[in-house]
């Protein structure tokens, strides 16, 4: 039997319409507010949702966006928005949010009957029952670099090969789209997603390591955030002085940007993390705090195809431990013991990772004059990867003063260092457009 979910806080309208629908042979579910309605939609997958526009807890626009963004409800149900408002702008916004039809109350049963018949014919096959076995996630995971530079974008002929956009990485695992950081590489990623999905809703999760500008400055130019059909969840930890949402909104305030965060039509949820372990769909995520000014974390994603460790801004204590920097040559001291324990935490965090993407901003000669800046020497990241039995290492967060030739020299030196250690480690430098597939 086909079902209708009726979401309306007007009890008289709800009861009258439910009685008529049951007489017409429909199974009817009812809800008094948007939150209860969304829960019923996800659990029961009705054929049709008839939803009021103005409701407590979640309005009709939010209900439409959430249903369209839910991966298990793609294509279902058909949605009719009902309202006492005849404003053309409300109708346009409801259709953009995912509604199939927009009806102004009062509703004539005969006309509604025609609409239901039309929508159910358009729907092809009914949605699977809630008892159907879940679809197993695809074993493949794809990683794509959209921004690899640190500190500031560096466009120009000398950075064409590795790229000049700041930090942004796309991870696809089954139905999950996970974005690591929102540097200027987020803009071309957004254009690509909009072209790929076209009229289909996009549901994505954006993981922020920290809110230094090179990791958030692409967000105002992320095209999917301007489509009310799309759902974007932003996760990260509190900043040193401002909360995550306040930091994102402040960079879009006048006079810095013409559109505020509140004016972006997309369904944007910003959650500040409290736990270092959480899940994004079937992907388990662990976080760890890094040695970088302010509050900065690294993430490790555990997908069915393998794990990805992402530590974009971090200063290892390797130089201090080995006494390779005069400032830190204090063997046998508590300082050395502390340094060793901090590096060991990172080594355990990335142990046996299939892919390690890590801050390698300086070469050995540069690092001595940049101690305490919060970034690592590439020699140290190679040593860490070997110690932790990492399979593939990607040098990341390229210095804005490094052209393609300089980065290539760093890669060559890193590969030679790994070879001298007899390690099977694969070493590359992250570059824009590079895709990696973990086959599982």
How is this structure best summarized?
The chain is of the alpha/beta class. The protein contains 12 helices and 19 strands.
How would you sum up this structure, described in words?
This protein starts with a strand and ends with a strand. α2 (34-44) runs parallel beside α3 and α11 (378-387) runs parallel beside α12 (404-420). It has helices at 11-23, 34-44, 60-69, 88-97, 109-122, 186-197, 244-250, 318-322, 334-350, 364-367, 378-387, 404-420; strands spanning 3-7, 27-31, 48-52, 78-83, 101-104, 141-147, 168-173, 176-180, 203-207, 231-236, 267-272, 277-280, 283-289, 297-303, 306-311, 355-359, 392-396, 426-429, 435-438. Residues 122-135 have low confidence and may be disordered. It is elongated and about 80 Å long. With 440 residues, it is α/β, with parallel strands linked by helices.
Short key terms for the protein model shown above:
440 residues, alpha/beta, Metallo-beta-lactamase, Chain A, 7-stranded mixed beta sheet, 23% strand
How are the SSEs ordered, and which strands pair?
Blueprint: E1 3-7, H1 11-23, E2 27-31, H2 34-44, E3 48-52, H3 60-69, E4 78-83, H4 88-97, E5 101-104, H5 109-122, E6 141-147, E7 168-173, E8 176-180, H6 186-197, E9 203-207, E10 231-236, H7 244-250, E11 267-272, E12 277-280, E13 283-289, E14 297-303, E15 306-311, H8 318-322, H9 334-350, E16 355-359, H10 364-367, H11 378-387, E17 392-396, H12 404-420, E18 426-429, E19 435-438
Parallel strand pairs: 1-2, 1-3, 3-4, 4-5, 8-9, 9-10, 10-11, 15-16, 16-17, 17-18
Antiparallel strand pairs: 6-7, 6-19, 7-8, 12-13, 13-14, 14-15
Helix pairs in contact: 2-3, 11-12
